[in-house]
Amino acid sequence: MDQLLTSLWTRGGWFRAFTPPSSAVNDTSSIASVQNEPPKGTPILNISSDVLLLIGDYLDASDILCLKLACRSTYALFPQTLKTMLPGQKKAVLPLIEKDHLGRGTFYCAHCNKLHAFQPTTGPQATLADTGERPKHGKCSRRDRFSPLNNPFGLSYAHARLAVNRHLYGAEHGIPLANLCIEHSEQRDKTTIKCSTSAKMMDGELFLRRTYVFAVAETDVAAFRKGTGARDFKLCEHTSFFSGSSAFQQYIPELQRRPLTGGYNLVPCREAPGSCGLCLMDYDITIEPCIFADSSIKSWKIVIRATHQLGDCRSPEDWKWARFTEARRPHLFFPNRPNRRGSTYSPGMVQKRWTDDEMEACAVLDGPESNRGLFGLSFFS
User: Do 360 and 262 have their domain in common?
Assistant: First the structure.
């Protein structure tokens, strides 16, 4: 705030017309030297209250409240308070306080249009006892969650916003990405799915990679494929393991493919790509034969890596986040819009962005030695 007021003063113009006269400056050279010196403190507060009130007439309600919070003098001068502001005005000023030095330890809740306190341990699947949050604040942090069918990750908009806040404003304004990287297991028919999460910030947007690893015995493949409907498992709100479980007719075809020779077995594949047509989710699936170490039973090991792009998480109305959670009731006849089908994000683009970032990180870690071949000779001439 001091920088804002100082910039208004040093900008020149009619602000300087109200500069109080100085008896110490008498000659032209002294005046020039004084004008070249940087202002100390907050010079705009040296002018009369009438001028400050006149300035306030040209400011928006959110700007007046920021000026009011500059110091005790301006706080007592302007009558505007947060309680007297309209909801739209609060929506404009509270995010400014959230990223300010005074807003440390708080985040803006878009659902109730208030600032809530948070703890550094806040994250998905964390209980109120673990985070120390108040019950009403915990309720807000658990709204608008990503929790597809039988895949209860529990990431809410508040968690995503806090993670991005830390990246944008500093450590005291949010939670680390490690709070989002949790592991859990989900019991399904004939198998147990182990879920893990990775998170990173790229170009100011939050990305998640959810990895699902499970094994199915060859004798249980037919029973595993019968786990449809309420027993199915979803990678996102639109894509399920098997057909018939998603209202959007999106599923993983590799899990239903059968050998050309007949039978119910799975067909091996290596990082077969796929994507969701509504949200920004790309995935690849690997199916390979394996043997259970404890029972020597022939089985299939399945690894699915789903990459999600959540956007900058500045508003829950952003379509990237809105399609991620689908908190609003889906339309009866067509998917919620806007969605991926009307965007410039082609299939595989999210997965490629994640992979390219990892390759860039490896190149930085390897350094110039990464281009050297046998006996230290360079591969490139």
Answer: yes
